[in-house]
Amino acid sequence: MQKFLSRLFDHLMKSWSWVLLVLCTVLIKWMSLYPGRVEEYYTYGIYPVISRVQRLLFGWIPFSIGDLFYAFLVLVILFRTFRFFKLLFQKKLTRKYFASGLQQAIFFFLFVYVFFNLLWGLNYNRTGIAAQLHLQVKPYSLTDLDTLTSVIQEKLNDYSEFVTEGQRDSLDKKRRLFNESANAYHYAEKQFPFLKYRSGSVKPSLYSYLGNYLGFQGYYNPFSGEAQVNTTIPRFLEPFVTAHELAHQLGYAKENEANFVAFLACRSFPSPGFKYSMYFDIYNYAIGEVRSRDTALTRSFQKKLKPRVISDIKEYRDFYRKYQNPIEPVIMWGYGHYLKANNQPAGKETYNEVVAWLIAYYKKYGVEAL
User: What's the pTM?
Assistant: First the structure.
């Protein structure tokens, strides 16, 4: 293992490789300063080709290639850490070892940074769907929030009457869940042509149970183009989570944008299960914002929920309470900083920002568009 890694790094770390990586890093940073250019030349220029090729290469494989890549990466890190402490205890660490290790670490991070951005990450700097729909996303008042939450709650209560256990059981078959999520985008494409989705590559995460302890419902792997879904979460969450990950595949990298795009897709799809899942998720974001401003108003909303919604909220809370542990806050802290480093200054709160987008949307198109 050590010999293989040493040879790999020796082969990669040629002088021309350093020059190329540094040039690419500078070019990416310069490009990110111009969202319009990113949108035109990357998001709707280079990226569609890259993502389509990735999904054609790996989409047919029944398990996640990206998850295996992550496993290999973790093993390498563990191996290098073990070797470091072994040499430390044997008092064999030298300046040459530290210099070589630092050089390899810098090269590795530059390598990952460049490929992450070339394969997908530059989408964090695009103009995005607000520009595509000509939305004016602004700070909103409690009245605006009250209007949004009222409409969303009414829709959620309505669709709770149409969702059957049989419909939920049918989505236990992950192939059907993933196929119907793609169909949701086919419906959305009729109204929003820029949401065209082809060559699906959505898979259950190999680390779903681990994900419950780490706090993730799904994620996108930019190196393989695969969307991974944690398929152990409550069933009523899975349709919206899957639609969210497909939004990432379409180049909507920011979490608020992915949430909003998933809203558009699920709303377009004539499936009570998908609509309920979407309104359930959106309602949780909206009522969370209400709670932070007016607890009395929050209680008035909660009194109007239908029995199925109340039951699902309880199941949702019980599920995540079951997996609470000391590691999750650390992981979420790191993830929040990852989001901040990628043009999302609100960190984890970026997910909640979908509320502002929805308010801007209904102000432009009317509450009936919700």
Answer: 0.92
Q: How far does CA 49 lie from the centroid of its chain?
A: 21
Q: 22 is written with which tokens?
A: 């540094």
pLDDT in tens, 197-249: 988 899 999 998 888 888 889 999 999 999 999 999 999 999 999 999 999 99
Cβ atoms of residues 351 and 259 within 8 Å = yes
Q: What is the dihedral of CA 59, 236, 350, 259, to 10 degrees?
A: 60
Q: Which residues contact 315 (CB under 8 A, 6 or more apart)?
A: 234
The residue assigned the tokens 């009570």 is 272
> 3-class DSSP state for residue 87?
helix
The conformation of residue 43, written as its DSSP 8-state character, comes to I
Helix segments in 95-191, DSSP class H: 95-119, 129-132, 142-160, 165-170, 174-191
- Strand partners of residue 204: 229
| 221 beta partners | 226
pLDDT tens-digit map of 295-326 = 999 999 999 999 999 999 999 999 989 988 88
Q: Is 128 exposed, middle or buried (0-12, 13-18, 19+ CB in 10 A)?
A: buried
Which among 23-27, 150-154, 322-326 has the top mean pLDDT?
150-154
Cα distance between residue 244 and residue 256, in whole Å: 10
SS (H, E, C) 282-306: HHHHHHHHHHCCCHHHHHHHHCCCC
